[in-house]
Amino acid sequence: MSLLFGSGHRARCERYIGGDISNVARICLTSFGQYRQHNDTLIHELQDWMHHEHPGNLTVARCASKSFLSEKQMTRRFKAATGDVPVNYIQRLRLSSARDKLSTTRLNIETISRQVGYSNINHFRLLFKKFYDMTPTQYRKVTQSYCEHEPAH
User: Fold this and answer.
1) I need a surface site. Which of 2, 9, 86, 152 has the fewest CB within 10 A?
2) 112-117 LR contacts (CB < 8 Å, sep 24+)
3) Burial of 122: CB neighbours in 10 Å, binned 0-12, 13-18, 19+
4) First CA to last CA across the chain, in angstroms?
């Protein structure tokens, strides 16, 4: 593996396979797969669209319009298919995008909050903590520390 991908990648794989996975790495590995385990083609298409749309532009109303359903019909159908309501799914998309920006950019948290669709930074911080068990600042510090301790490629 070292020859193909480098020793840094090998070391990360060994730690993951060996069970040495930090809280941050666990958060990074979370996906939306659990919400795709259904057979509703319309909701799959809506989810695909949502994942390609800028998270700051996502609203329940736009999702309903995109699926040619009323908000109430779309919400009921989305929940039946995914097990969660669209507003929570949108929050997960926004927070996932924020998480990526926190670990890959030096943008300040207020800017990231606005970019992903939250005008109230305190609301953004509360949601981030609710979903990830740490504040955006804590997440950034831990991911920067984690990346600094990764072996060089």
Assistant:
1) 152
2) 112/136, 114/56, 115/56, 116/55, 116/56, 117/55, 117/56, 117/57, 117/58
3) exposed
4) 13
| pLDDT tens for the chain, residues 1 to 153 | 445 555 555 555 555 455 444 444 444 445 777 888 889 999 999 999 999 999 999 999 999 999 999 999 999 999 999 999 999 999 999 999 999 999 999 999 999 999 999 999 999 999 999 999 999 999 999 887 655 544 444
Structure tokens at 140: 């950034």
Q: How far is CA 105 from CA 81, 89, 111, 140, in A?
A: 35, 24, 11, 10
Please calculate the CA angle 114-120-121 and round it to the nearest 5 degrees: 75
Q: Which amino acid is at 106?
A: R
**Position 51, amino acid:** H
